[in-house]
Design brief:
Layout: E1 3-5, E2 8-10, E3 16-17, E4 26-27, E5 35-45, E6 48-58, E7 65-72, E8 78-86, E9 89-92, E10 94-97, H1 98-110, E11 113-122, E12 125-133, E13 138-148, E14 151-152, E15 155-160, E16 168-169, E17 210-218, E18 224-229, E19 234-238, E20 244-248, E21 258-264, E22 272-277, H2 281-284, E23 292-299, E24 311-318, H3 326-340, E25 347-353, E26 357-358, E27 368-369, H4 372-383, H5 394-403, E28 412-419, H6 426-433, E29 441-447, H7 453-462, E30 467-470, H8 476-487, E31 492-500, E32 503-511, E33 524-532, E34 540-547, E35 552-558, E36 560-561, H9 567-585, H10 590-604, E37 611-620, E38 628-631, E39 650-651, H11 660-663, H12 713-717, H13 738-754, H14 758-775, H15 781-795, H16 804-817
Parallel strand pairs: 5-17, 7-38, 16-39, 22-36, 24-25, 24-28, 28-29, 29-30
Antiparallel strand pairs: 1-2, 3-4, 5-6, 6-13, 7-12, 8-9, 8-13, 10-37, 11-12, 11-37, 14-15, 15-21, 17-20, 18-21, 19-20, 22-23, 23-33, 25-26, 25-27, 31-34, 32-33, 34-35
């Protein structure tokens, strides 16, 4: 039986490892998955880093192949080069406007020539397509990145993401074909959802990709005290020239970020101003023909003075399904630590959210004084929070911003978001919230082994705050110490820059666009462009701000010229990021912003969301034009429970990471998902489910759930434990449909009607509550509130609790509301 898993045809139910396929390669009767190699080679010199990523694809089929791979890259790095290597041919990529690059790629593939194209979907999320890979042939695409390591609290961090995690996709589905090759349906809120949702391999799937990471560290005179890798096993060696070589231990999977921390001494990030003149005078000259250039300013914060200001703090905690497991434990601890740092002079409140927003029930509404009693109540509420439901982030952030709208000049207004950031509507959120965040200081705490760092940094940048990333529980305490310093009174606020002497600053070019406040342990790093009236830029930049005690703080930094070829590209990446954020947050002038993004991207050869790297070979290798298309599945992020559908997108109203108990629920499809998962849910064919002996008769439904025996109905339909060791793997569950709810209601109405005594009704209602709680993460969003209300009614205690008859009536009324009077086939774009 043929099983379509994405675009890969598998002719056997259980894959096997094939020694000839290479280390970790998966073998089917048609061959291996196309992606067989990921190599990361990074060179760190001081705080600068240059990385080359090699992705190797091999065609296991007997026809030419086009492979699509959705993958992450460091969100701060500038993608500056793409090179395609195949059959002893090397083709250099060029940056073009995205539409033109796509046209070149499609034309080349149609003409039978090898081609590759890399497109940025989000800061940190990219799509790579490689066309006309010939049978048995290997094509390697090499991507070059440059940037600088973030340095805070005496540590520099090299973070290289390796997997795009499933993201919550809100909004209504759009009609027509999807714009991408991923598993999610495009929606009005996330119109490119299908471009950021790679298919996901089943848990336990053999390692399909050979992963290799090597980082060479040259301290460049800085005192290097240690190297630590928090998520991977590594081997550290020392070369004769004093460099350290960090190598990833063999056998690792591409299922989490690679995080390497470099312990530099306190003087590692010294106050400095580095300037580099452009090499090409004609293109970069100012109006007088004098060459312009790029500057990089680093300013260390002053020593803490102990001056503090009262704060208004709103803590927003993500409790959605993807936060399950260690992440929820870490998030609760982080939130509690933040609450405990508040003083009696502060005011605060706490929001927890999934598809609903809740506050501690025994705290007064609005901002409350951070007394011992109020903090205790908040922490007690946080200790009971568990993961559930979808990530509807816009509402709690808007509520938090509205609560902090009071512009009291004597109080700092702080919003803190604790989340994994796994949402697909980043642009819509920035558009909705940019104006609301004006005047606030927004800090983000990202908790995940494959965190959405790009979005969380964008959000913090718009809010003038800091982003702290926590990739494991072991990292939590150190991260929370840093968060504690960041949410306190800043050492310097209201920063602005002024050029001095011959250094004339282009103020519109400065990035980040909103200069952050200065906090202890976090240097200010600013890049920008300048034009100078002298042949040598011998001026200075003065940073001016307001100290914590209200006095004026200044710092003059003299310019030092350096031959730094990567400085302009580092600035260009930051500039493009600011322009892209402005593009999604304004209602007018988008055409001008798009032109500015494209011009900057093409001129400095730095990838953006409006451009693409395209490499096209001149040799025709596929005369017939026949082409097989494959979308590469990826690993589920480390530490995640399998999401609903094992690789299907997280949609509004569905959980982001269902509990393992829910994974055991069997669906009776025409095939099993024992191999790997991708777009199979779109092609499911329904058939009647076999009836269990003694089961209650059920009307036929599409995609049915097998009817359970009457006594064990809820436990069989929604089992509380997975299969035993050695049992065959169970098919993946899917979100509950209206047909499922109809069948569920008919079963329970039958059972409740058959119960004639209060004792029998009480037993059944208790069983119904258990079943409702287990199925809640899988039901559509519009049903969650009704189910929650019903559970509250059925479990109420005390003198005002409803009697058995009233509870029975409430359950019956809700179940009747689920019955469908007419069965309509869903439109094709919903199937």
């Amino acid at each position: 039986m043929t099983v379509r898993t994405g675009a890969v045809e598998v002719f056997e139910e259980v894959p096997r490892l094939e020694p000839e396929g290479g280390l970790g390669a998966l073998r089917t009767e048609r061959g291996n998955l196309p992606l067989e190699l990921i190599e990361v080679r990074a060179a760190v010199v001081g705080l600068a880093v240059r990385t080359e990523l090699a992705q190797g694809f091999r065609n296991p089929y007997d026809v030419p192949l086009e492979a699509t791979y959705i993958f992450p890259l460091p969100d701060r790095a500038a993608v500056t080069r793409l090179r395609m290597e195949a059959a002893d041919r090397v083709v250099e990529g060029v940056v073009k406007e995205r539409e033109a690059a796509r046209a070149d790629y499609e034309q080349a593939v149609a003409e039978g020539r090898r081609a590759s194209i890399a497109e940025e979907e989000r800061p940190g999320v990219f799509t790579l397509r490689v066309g006309n890979i010939m049978p048995g042939e290997q094509v390697v695409v090499r991507t070059t990145l440059s940037g600088r390591l973030p340095y805070e609290d005496g540590q520099a961090t090299f973070r290289f993401p390796l997997v795009v995690a499933p993201r919550y996709i809100p909004g209504a589905g759009l009609p027509g074909e999807s714009v991408g090759d991923g598993t999610a349906t495009d929606t009005d809120r996330v119109p490119d959802a299908s471009r950021i949702s790679p298919p996901v391999l089943l848990p336990g799937f053999p390692n399909p990709v050979r992963l290799s990471i090597e980082v060479g560290v040259d301290p460049a005179g800085l005192p290097l005290s240690g190297l630590t890798s928090s998520l991977h096993g590594v081997t550290v060696g020392e070369e004769e020239d004093g460099r350290r070589i960090v190598r990833l231990d063999p056998g690792a999977r591409a299922d989490r970020d690679f995080v390497l921390r470099l312990g530099y001494g306190g003087a590692a990030a010294a106050t400095s101003l580095v300037v580099a003149r452009d090499a090409e005078v004609p293109e970069s000259a100012d109006a007088d023909g004098v060459p312009a250039g790029t500057f990089l300013l680093t300013v260390l914060p002053p020593e803490p003075t102990g001056d503090t200001r009262p704060r208004d703090v709103v803590l927003v905690l993500d409790r959605s399904g993807s936060m399950g497991g260690w992440k929820m434990t870490a998030a609760r601890r982080a939130a509690a630590r933040i609450v405990d740092t508040l003083s009696a002079a502060d005011r605060f409140t706490v929001f927890t959210f999934d598809h609903e927003v809740t506050t501690p029930p025994d705290l007064p509404a609005g901002l409350v004084p951070a007394t011992d009693r109020h903090r205790f109540r908040a922490v007690r509420h946080l200790s009971a929070v568990d993961a559930r439901g979808g990530t509807e982030m816009a509402v709690p952030l808007r509520k938090a911003a509205d609560l902090l709208a009071d512009r009291d000049p004597e109080r700092d207004r702080v919003l803190i978001l604790v989340t994994d950031g796994q949402v697909g509507d980043e642009d819509a959120l920035l558009s909705d919230l940019s104006s609301a965040f004006a005047g606030l200081r927004v800090h983000t705490v990202g908790i995940d082994s494959a965190v959405n760092a790009g979005f969380l940094r964008r959000l913090a940048s718009v809010g003038g705050g800091h982003c702290e990333l926590v990739e494991s529980e072991d990292r939590l305490d150190a991260a929370m110490d840093a968060v504690h310093r960041r949410i306190g009174t800043p050492l310097v606020t209201g920063l602005r820059l002024a050029g001095e002497g011959s250094l004339e600053l282009d103020r519109d070019s400065i990035t980040p666009a909103r200069l952050p406040d200065l906090f202890a342990g976090a240097p200010l790093v600013v890049a920008g462009r300048f034009g100078n009236a002298a042949e040598k830029p011998d001026g200075a930049i003065i940073a001016i701000g307001t100290a914590a005690d209200g006095s004026t703080w200044t710092r003059r930094v003299a310019a030092v010229e350096a031959d730094d070829a990567g400085l302009a590209q580092f600035w260009a990446r930051g500039r493009i990021r600011d322009l892209e954020d402005r593009y999604v947050s304004v209602r007018q002038g988008q055409a001008e912003l798009e032109r500015a993004i494209v011009e900057t991207s093409v001129r400095y050869s730095v990838l953006s969301r409006f451009t693409a790297f395209v490499a096209v070979d001149s040799v025709v290798v596929n005369e017939g034009g026949v082409l097989k298309r494959v979308t590469q599945p990826v690993d589920l992020p480390h530490g995640w429970d399998a999401p609903v559908g094992y690789g299907m997108p997280m949609a509004a109203g569905a959980p982001q990471a269902a509990p393992r108990a829910m994974m055991a629920r069997a669906l009776h499809d025409d095939f099993s998902l024992d191999t790997m998962s991708t777009k199979t849910a779109r092609a499911r064919v329904s058939r009647p489910a076999p009836s269990a002996p003694g089961s209650v008769p059920m009307p036929p439904v599409s995609n049915p759930i097998a009817p359970p025996p009457p006594i064990e109905a809820s436990r069989a339909a929604f089992p509380q434990k997975g299969g035993r060791r050695g049992d065959p793997p169970m098919p993946a569950p899917r979100p509950v449909t209206a047909d499922d709810l109809d069948a569920f209601a008919r079963l329970w109405l039958f059972r409740l009607a058959a119960a004639t005594t209060d004792e029998a009704r009480t037993t059944l209602l208790s069983e119904l509550v258990t079943t409702l709680r287990q199925m809640t993460p899988l039901v559509p969003a519009e049903q969650v509130a009704a189910i929650t209300k019903l559970i509250s009614t059925l479990t109420a205690e005390g003198v005002e609790a409803p009697d058995v008859a009233t509870r029975h009536e409430a359950a019956t009324a809700y179940l009747k509301s689920l019955l469908k009077t007419e069965r309509r086939r869903a439109p094709f774009w919903k199937r």
